[in-house]
Prior knowledge:
Strand content: 5-15%
Mean pLDDT: 96
Low-confidence stretches: none
Helix content: 40-55%
Distance between the termini: 12 Å
Structural class: mainly alpha
Order of helices and strands: HEEEHHEEHHEHHEEEEHHEEHHEEH
Shape: globular
Number of helices: 12
Amino acid sequence: MSKKIEKYLNQYRAxxxxxxxxxxxxxxxxxxxGGYFTCLTREGHVFDTDKFIWLQGRETWFFSMLYNNLxxxxxxxxxxxxxxxxxxxxxRANDGTWYFSLTRExxxxxxxxxxxxxxxxxxxxxxxxxATNNNEYADIARSTFESILKxxxxxxxxxxxxxxxxxxxxxxxxxxxxCNLSLEIEHLLPPSVVEALIEDCLNEVMxxxxxxxxxxxxxxxxxxxxxxxxxxxxxLNPGHAIEAMWFxxxxxxxxxxxxxxxxxxxxxxxxLEYAWDAQYGGILYFxxxxxxxxxxxxxxxxxxxxxxxxxxxxLKGYLHTGDERCWTWFEKVxxxxxxxxxxxxxxxxxxxxxxxxxxxxxxxxxxxxxxxHVPRGLYQCWKTLEKIKNNENEK
Length: 395
């Protein structure tokens, strides 16, 4: 077993440091306009120059995180600050919220309707403050986080397309992100605020959105946590649910709450068993909890982030509980993922596969895919495998 763990560990580390990170450092930096290009072809050529703020924040965060947690490489910090400079200069509206997208030069394109621009700006500047002790970065992270909390019950504000009051729903994505964000900027907040936020997030994720009849996590519920028998209310997003579970495991580790970790591990396994494509392998993108046709036409696609997040959750589940089902599923998902997503010829990973596992789009980055899930996932898997290896050695 130890040799197998070592093999996987080396594979994830090499893929991150020798393949994926060099791809982004070589191809994404916009030396003229500032910030990063994220719309990259298979070969790494820029095919569109618009700047999507949540991806700018994610890339800034990632290189800051590496600098803080892996090695104090000046080139990583410089790369992160390059993104932060662009964000500071152009990305905020007058009220302090963050636009969704800008032109290459920094002119606003899409209004600040998407609260996830704010979430990843908070992460980025929180990590950069750790790296630099620059109080300006801390102030940006704190003020943005306060804004997120104020609008969490109405995240899109007046930009929402829904008619108010007819079928009010709340979405799983924000409490899921806040589980992670609360730990990301814990160093900038009063302990009481962090503890209250964590408890609220745990309740939302593990109780409000959790469907007791099926053991699955819903993507949308009514404001009081009830099931809505509608397209949106029946929607399952297995990748979201599983990603949230490793956030919950991290919170469980912080709280020394073994029962919470066990429950998150069990939800991970149950969701994966439910969403695994028995015909072609891989994890389905969207499902309907009643088995009806999903509204999303891309329901049967296989996406990069769903699979890498699942690998993280399975490894953390195995690390913390020793449940052999986690390891068995890890090897199964690992084999399918590495067979279909990595591009050994040009680097990085494909993002969008059809149900059979063939690339639908050969792009390496675009409006939704950037320097985030793949490198973060490789890092998380590498470091979790190191912990598993250490545990094995101590036996």
